[in-house]
């Protein structure tokens, strides 16, 4: 049975395949549908949609937003976005400006700690995609401040590092309605990263549902069988949609294959059909 993949990244954020290459690989891999969900950016969607027409593969335009969370970390997927979500893009543009400002200020801090790390060099290292701490880590190594990325995070830019600065993020209360206004189906990605279990976990997901959350990622590369079963039950108990995807990033995460995760992943097309049925009931385009 051909499967689908509703969680993937391209060069537009931190993946290594262009949207066109990603779609071509999806087709070659025998997928029936593919969602592009780059981090905090939707610029790849027109290209992915065009490639979908060219390669005869159903494309679901999406994105993945990192939002504030009191526990662990929270990522929210918006699926079925319009190709040019104007209001969402304005907010994402603002977040990118904030990100650039944070990166600059981290570099300033590193300079004041005696390391020759310039924002210009960090930009060069980053190339096209989203610029962030992994690139700053490389610049720290170049400047002789650390001998590994992990070491650079531990000493300088990790959450308790000497040059650390927090990142501006949307709250779920902002992000979910923002996605809903664009007509998206809103999914909590890899729910286990909230680092909750049992009643507190169910309560948090219920709260998100009240903000407009439509579903959660039940099938995911890093989920154990127990987690998949737990989240499968949770979507039934809370009347949510189930989603599934690999979180494919190309060669930066070489052990994760498109549509197949670490080999055993299978996301049935029926999940997408259920989403479309729910959307049709809400009068949303499918
Ligand atoms: P940024 O969005 O600029 O804050 O960078 C976040 C990225 O940094 C994450 O996606 C991770 O890849 C990486 N990262 C965060 N914390 C660590 C850590 N302690 N060690 C290694 N990489 C990390
Ligand atoms: Zn990523
Ligand atoms: Fe994520
Ligand atoms: Fe992801």
Automatic annotation (TrEMBL):
Family matches, as InterPro entries: PHP_dom (IPR004013), PHP_domain (IPR052018), Pol/His_phosphatase_N (IPR003141), Pol/histidinol_Pase-like (IPR016195)
CDD domains: PHP_HisPPase_AMP
Domain of life: Bacteria
Domain Polymerase/histidinol phosphatase N-terminal: 4-69
SMART domains for the chain: POLIIIAc (SM00481)
Signal peptide stretch: none
One Gene Ontology term of the molecular function aspect: 5'-3' DNA exonuclease activity
Membrane-crossing segments per the record: none
Full protein name: PHP domain protein
Species in which this protein is naturally found: Desulfovibrio ferrophilus
């Amino acid at each position: 049975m051909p499967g689908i993949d509703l969680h993937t990244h391209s060069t537009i954020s931190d993946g290594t395949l262009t949207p066109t290459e990603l779609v071509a690989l999806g087709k070659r891999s025998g997928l029936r549908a593919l969602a592009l969900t780059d981090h905090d950016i939707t610029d790849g969607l027109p290209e992915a949609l065009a490639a979908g027409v060219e390669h005869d593969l159903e494309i679901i335009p999406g994105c993945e937003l990192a939002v504030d969370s009191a526990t662990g970390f929270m990522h929210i997927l918006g699926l079925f976005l319009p190709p040019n979500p104007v209001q969402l893009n304005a907010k994402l543009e603002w977040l990118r400006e904030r990100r650039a400002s944070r990166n600059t200020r981290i570099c300033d801090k590193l300079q004041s700690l005696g390391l020759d790390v310039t924002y210009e060099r960090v930009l060069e290292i980053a190339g096209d995609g989203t610029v962030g701490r992994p690139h700053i880590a490389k610049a720290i190594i170049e400047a002789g401040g650390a001998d590994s990325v992990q070491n650079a995070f531990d000493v300088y830019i990790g959450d308790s590092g000497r040059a650390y600065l927090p990142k501006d993020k949307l709250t779920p209360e902002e992000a979910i309605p923002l996605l809903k206004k664009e007509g998206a189906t809103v999914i909590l990605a890899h729910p286990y990263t909230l680092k909750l279990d049992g009643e507190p976990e169910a309560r948090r997901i219920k709260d998100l549902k009240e903000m407009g959350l439509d579903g959660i990622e039940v099938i995911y590369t890093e989920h154990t069988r127990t987690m998949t079963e737990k989240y499968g039950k949770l979507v039934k108990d809370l009347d949510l949609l189930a989603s599934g995807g690999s979180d494919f990033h190309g060669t930066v995460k070489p052990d994760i294959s498109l549509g197949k995760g670490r080999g055993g992943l299978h996301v049935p097309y029926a999940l997408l059909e259920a989403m479309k049925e729910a959307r049709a009931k809400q009068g949303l385009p499918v």
